Amino acid sequence: MMSNGITSLAQYKEEKRKEISERKDQVYLEIEAVNKEYTAEKFIDQTPEYFSGTDTEIPRWKRLLMAQKIAKEAIKKREDELWDEFAKWKEQVSPSFRLPPK
Question: Which of 42, 67, 65, 63 has its CA nearest to residue 51?
Answer without folding.
Answer: 63
